[in-house]
Amino acid sequence: MSAANTGLTLALSKGRIFEETLPLLRAAGIEVLEDPETSRKLILPTNREGVRIVMVRASDVPTYVQYGGADLGVAGRDVLHEQALAQGGSHGLYQPLDLNIARCRMSVATRADFDYATAVKQGSRLRVATKYTEIARQHFAEKGVHVDLIKLYGSMELAPLTGLADAIVDLVSTGGTLRANKLVEVEQIMDISSRLVVNQAALKLKRDTLRPLIDAFSKAVTA
Ligand code: ATP
Ligand code: MG
Question: How many C-beta neighbours within 10 Å does residue 150 have?
Fold first, then answer.
């Protein structure tokens, strides 16, 4: 089944997910013994014998957990939803808990001088640049809007500014990046936060270690 047959492996990504998961781990009695920003280690030890953290790319967390490279992980709803759609609607991940961290929203944004409402009403074909092509495809299909999707991996804000696209679908938290680039949020698609994801086999075979951890996280989230 999983990474190691004993102990527990938790997959996290650097940055906000790691930072915001730390207090939850602490509430569960787990201290991470190295800082991923300064350490070159990809596997970080903790104060709890057998509990280790693997540092992976945010979009790789579901993959590690699904295939047992990690027993559990923390992943954004954006990543989970995008990958579920890409796999035909679902993946074999148990999602017991919304951790309510790394909160933001998935939105449509355009240049301030682009008349989105009219373009949508007139049934024009929209050119949409995004990293989240499946979420964008589903969103516009539900609205009956025809789109040409352009897959990007970085700085989507640049697409409308260069004429690459009419609109972008991206994560927005404060709106500061959009404002700095003279873009406006024209539609909100969904609220985003990060969830705990657990490997199905681990849930059964490591139940005795996993259950108290999930319960401690749950308490810390509602506190
Ligand atoms: P990278 O930035 O290395 O390309 P990434 O964008 O996938 O990777 P992060 O920016 O750390 O990684 O985002 C990880 C998760 O945090 C996202 O999947 C999303 O759920 C959430 N997130 C992203 N941007 C924001 C934001 N501005 N505010 C709050 N949460 C966010
Ligand atoms: Mg990012």
Answer: 16
